[in-house]
Prior knowledge:
Blueprint: H1 25-48, H2 65-74, H3 79-92, E1 99-104, E2 112-116, E3 128-134
Antiparallel strand pairs: 1-2, 1-3
Helix pairs in contact: 1-2, 1-3
Amino acid sequence: MTEPEPTAPVWPAWRSLELGRRTELTTLRAALWTARALRSVKRSLPNDGLRSTVPAPPALPWRSTRGVYGVLVRQPNTCLERALVLQAWLLAHGHAHDVIVGVNESVAEFAAHAWLDYEDGSSRSVGFVELTRVPVGP
């Protein structure tokens, strides 16, 4: 029996993990891919900027997403790195989302932030105005 995929990813999915439960091998593979993808994005962002590419994730079931979120919340990363890695993972599972880069609305202090378009209107994007998008695909 296969698990139904949600219509939109739920953040943070990692909170549904029960500590002490046996972790599936697919979840560990997803976590390993995420760690490698984060390292790859960190290296390519200084030279390639928003044109940075993320290695394609392995073919794993949706329930392996727990491994992705587990690494994203435990490893140091920027919002842009997180969004690019998550965009690649979600695209591999049939969820195409643009990365949005925005700046804060306040003129007193400059700040920039990146998030996925499904998070638009959530606490992740409040107070930021869209500056550009990183579309899905080449």
